[in-house]
Amino acid sequence: MEPKGKLVTGLSARSARSGEQWVSDALLHMSIVSAHTDIQLSALSGGVSSDIYRVDLPAGVTVCVKRALAKLRVAADWRAPVSRNHWEAEWMRVAGAIAPSAVPRVLGEDRDAGCFAMEYFPAERFSTWKTLLASGTIDATDATLVAQISVAPAELASCLQNCGAEYRAHAGSGVAQIFVSSLSNADDLRGTLARWREIAHGGRGNLRVLRVNDELREGIGIFDTPPKAAFGLMHRLKNTFDPHGIFNPGCFVGGL
Length: 256
Prior knowledge:
Elements: E1 6-8, H1 21-29, E2 39-43, E3 50-56, E4 62-68, H2 84-98, E5 106-110, E6 115-119, H3 129-135, E7 145-150, H4 156-163, E8 166-169, E9 175-180, H5 186-202, E10 206-212, H6 228-241
Antiparallel strand pairs: 1-2, 2-3, 3-4, 4-6, 5-6, 7-9, 7-10, 8-9
């Protein structure tokens, strides 16, 4: 279903809904529209760290405007510098130069307002990384080994490079799905998995197996080994809630 929006007739007219004028001002500052352009604004859901709007322009043109929030929409008082918006735009420019179809094209930037405009990718044609990760969807039909690596966001790029595998990731999340199809025997698979986990640990994270070839999966640990202190806590929680060990024994981290 297409989002319902607010029609702004000419950018000199202020929106009837408070808090949306910045979108019109930013589009004007970025020279994407003129002061007399009629635009349709539709707030997009899903962002806790940004305001994101779909903007329908005349002649069927649609763009997306994103502005970083200084205070995140969470219960705790979490704050972050809005300058991060500029570096997201810069990353998209670099990624777009390498793989033009991988990211929306940046159409303009208003650094003073902490926002930028980009091509609009409709949800019916482009799935988001959050949706794909939540559903476990992996475009790796012939992969021998598929895993999810979770590391500090700043470490993700180098970790993926060191893993030397195909991957699907989002720049700011620290989480990626990685997969490889060239493993032909159990020893190669175990060696690759051990190397990936060592890389994940070096990036202050962990690695979990999502899928492995049925013929090679014997003896493969799905879960990573947690730090000793964390595992001790998990063990105490398990004993508290399942003192007789009857709930899926041996099916979780460390054989819990």
